[in-house]
Amino acid sequence: MSTSILDTREQAPRSAPDPTLTADDLVARAQEMIPALRDRAAEVDRERRIPAETYRMLGDAGFFHILKPKKYGGLELSEHEHARVAMNLARGCASTAWVFSILSSDNMAILSFPEEVQDEIWGDDPYATLAGNTNLNPKATARKVEGGYRLTGQWGFCSGSDFSEWLIFNAPVGEAGEGHMFLVPHGEAETIDDWHPTGMRGTGSRSMAVRDVFVPERRVQATKDTVRKLAERRSLHPTFDTMWATWPSNGRFPFASCAVGAAWGAAEHFADTVGSSTRVANALGGAVRLADQDYVASEFAAAQGDIQMARLLIEKRSFEASQRARDRKESTEADIAREMRDNSLVTRTALRSVQQIFSLVGARAGSAEHPVSRAKRDVEMISHHVTLNWRQAAVRYLGSVA
User: Fold this and answer.
1) What number of other Cβ atoms are within 10 A of residue 47's Cβ?
2) Which secondary-structure segment (H or E) carries 36?
3) Which residues contact 335 (CB under 8 A, 6 or more apart)?
4) At what angle do helices 23-47 and 371-383 cross, to 10 degrees?
5) 14-42 pLDDT tens trace
6) CATH numbers and ranges of domains, the chain
């Protein structure tokens, strides 16, 4: 058993957010939070976790209720709002935006399980969240017993698990080793403090392990059945349009939004400070103002313009995905391939742009606590995520249009 270092799970449950909150309200709240997130970003990077206070702020703002049905106090908003909130939070702190994006997105995984499981998770606490890792661990074991399974295994990259009340793991079942999703209370798992990356350090993406933990049948289902189960559960939440979204969803840009938002934040910092910034003129000394250099103007204008194009593409594609869900239209292969391409494309754009800005800052950007240094490391780390593989996305996209 383990207890998170920054445990919020023992606090008294809160009432659900104001049900009249609108999409614009949520985006405005994310924007209002940016200064506080910037003030804490260096600490988050050093401590390798977001503060409990920040996590509480995310919940109080209603962000974890964006993709949640009304039955459990949710706001029943869309992937478009999810993407916009993530992008704005990342302007202040990419790690905070990532934790939000993961825990908010994982609401949809919960909704694929039976109603009794949804009640078990959210019935007494509408703020409960789910972290974990949905990649199959072939070394894990799930031994069938009466009423369920005994699960043993370890899963890495469990972003947001510092705070989540629940965990989801993918383990093989039966002779064929078919992947199954297991929902486990956080208190029945062990945290392994092995998260020491160069970027996105504050996501708390540590490994979690379970040792011979009993998981009842109701909290286990075949991974391949997730899409079908989500479709079956639509009748439980008939007014929640996002139940018709693709799963896993590229339309909400869960990871690319964090990359673009981080680059956006770096561009804002550079614009705010360039007027008073200098660089050493040459090897013999002296100084030049960055704002007086033509090359700085040219490089920054290009980088900032590329970031803006990436932002607009995320907003357009996430809106289109949300509109399909509102219209109860299933996404086609062409839709999915285009979204995968664009997730990868905007991340590549963000990476190139933040690297350009980093090169303009000069030696000062070598400090780990410099905002542009942190943004560069964060975007570089995000760019390696499996869902943002440009070559794979490009091949799939070509196949969808050829």
Assistant:
1) 15
2) helix 23-47
3) 246, 320, 321, 324
4) 100
5) 889 999 999 999 999 999 999 999 999 99
6) 128-224 (2.40.110.10), 256-401 (1.20.140.10)
